[in-house]
Amino acid sequence: MSDELHAEAGSSLGEKPYVWHGSDRLRTWTAQDRLGIYTHVRLRKKTASRPHGNDVYGNNTTKRADEYTSTGQHQQPKHYAKQYDPSEGTGFRLGAAGAWTWTNGAALSHAGCLAALCPPLTTASLAEAHSHRFLGLKVPCLWTDCRHSRLVWSLGPRRRLKRRSVDEQSPAMADEAWVAAWVSGDVPGRCRITKLPLEVLIRITKWLATTDLCALRLTCRAIEDLLYVTFTDEFFTKKQFMITYDSLQALIDISKSRLGAHLRFLHIGLDRFPEGFEGLYRPLPDDEKERKFKQRYSNCIALWNMGYHHEMLTDAFRNLRGLEDVVLRDSNSSKRSRDGPNTEWTSYGSTTIFKETGVRLSQSMDGSCSQVFALVLRALGVARANPKGIEVMVRNGNHLRDFCFDIPCFAEPSVLPVLQKLEKLHLSIDLSWRTSPRGRSADAGPTSQSAPDARLRKFLASIPNLKNLRINEHHDDNSALTDFFVWLAAAPPSGDAPPEANGHGEASMAPVAMPRLEELSLGIMNLDCATLLGAIRKFAPSLRGLELWKVTLQRNLPTGSDPNEPPRNIFWTDFLNQLRQIPDLNLRHFKAGMLSQEYTRLSRVYHVSFKGRGATVDYTGAHWRDFVEEVIPKLEIKWPRTVTPEHGDSDDQVESDDNA
User: Fold this and answer.
1) What is the number of other CB atoms lying within 10 angstroms of the CB of residue 314?
2) Of 455, 507, 514, 464, whose CA–CA distance to 484 is shortest?
3) pLDDT digit string (tens) for 110-154?
4) E strand or H helix that includes residue 620
5) Which residues are 180's β-sheet partners?
6) Are 405 and 430 spatial neighbours (Cβ–Cβ below 8 Å)?
7) Which residues does the UniProt record annotate as the domain F-box (predicted)?
8) How many CB atoms lie within 10 A of CB 252?
9) Beta carbons within 10 angstroms of residue 625's beta carbon
10) Which burial class, exposed, middle or buried, applies to 249 when counting CB atoms under 10 A from its CB (0-12, 13-18, 19+)?
11) Strand 26-32 vs strand 238-242: parallel, antiparallel, or unpaired?
């Protein structure tokens, strides 16, 4: 025998429903699934039976109320269900032809059952049964405020109703307005937690795990309404998906719901099934996991091969009218503090795949970032979406290569309008693809069509309203990066003739103006001081923010210098002094961190820090020049220790080493 009453959702309302109230104390808990929430009610076992003899039906009341057995989807009572009158302390039993079922308030209202919602409660109304006296004065009644499901008792044959005569023991019908409010979950003054100040309730829920928070939200409509704003801000303002069928279908479903209006930052993870050296050459030991792995893998391959991922992304973008940024990333954020330290925000569906197959999806370098970037651009164009920014965040080497910036003629009508409205562009690029490690090709000048970054230059020329530009490379010594910044720093051509609108031809290789650029961020690259200052000087009139992160300044080794003991000069001192001298540069924000320097063609890299400030300095305000002047004397490098000369070395050599 079981003392639990389980129920199924979506039961039929072909017979009149009757609300059940038990004589024993009820305890409720919740379990979330994809469609909603089920409420499980546990009926505490009775230690003694009520000595009432026979009830009005002639049934023996000595049977215990917890004697139930499960028969499939419905819970059939082995003997009788018990109904309690809280006002008189007496009870009676219904016949065994009923079944415990679930239904919801909307279905009850639609079926016109509100008037018949209250069963015979002798002299007590449903409102009295709902009172705290029913469940105990010290226990707030959360179950009776639940709007997502109602436990009802459906009588079997209608002849059982005829067996009962309408006499003085028949109940008084509960107030119809109160019943309607009870069904909708809007009964005032019953759920004490809703009377807490909102800031207190938010503070309490801050420490709940995600599953517990979702369960609390679904207990009643009042709590859901109170927590709706904070819940959507945390979980649906920014959401991460991946290019799989289940993940993209979830994105489409969200975009069509009321949550779609809150999704402003869409992150697309580069999760994929491991292949090559990362792949699984042998079947999984568990047959069920192997079957699910093959099914998931084949679905993913078919999605890419048939191009259906483009249609799904287009459908989602078409519905996300509040979309601001689209972010491509090959790593998960570890800022999910609600579920414990080091918990990550993963792509939707990746955790499910791991639980089903035991295989964790990979985000390592495979070149897929360039494909997904082109896919997203095309889907945005077809959907006529107008995001303000596109970002590429790379930590595992999935840098964009030049070919992904190519916009074919058949895609220009849809993609170019998207680029013309972009205001933010964050790129992680790899300009070393199909180029020599050192030296410049004879035909690949700064404005040559054969330059390894020719398509990137055309791409930037198609974004006239750019305000925020971030470019990250990967500390490559290839001269293509220097050529790109020389092109970027060059002045645009004068005259009234603009470049060709379609981005083709030599005119499109002319330097771009970017007159609205306000924020410039450069990172993970090797450049010389003059080239870097030239790019900053060009955009100085409009520039308001400058960030330099993991930038390595390069300088040629002076003639006659010893490669083993190069001059101990700090290159960043000269750079910051020249930066302060740029006349039109009126920054409001300046940040520099993890800086370094090196002599070209020498393998040694020297890391720069700031005394008393660590490796990073950050300033926001109008007096950035004073701040830079203050931190220049604090620049320091931990130079390698000077080798102690052996016996017989000249004193002049020792003195020159000390004064170096």
Assistant:
1) 18
2) 455
3) 333 333 333 333 333 333 433 333 333 232 333 333 333 333 333
4) strand 616-620
5) none
6) no
7) 190-239
8) 19
9) 16
10) middle
11) unpaired
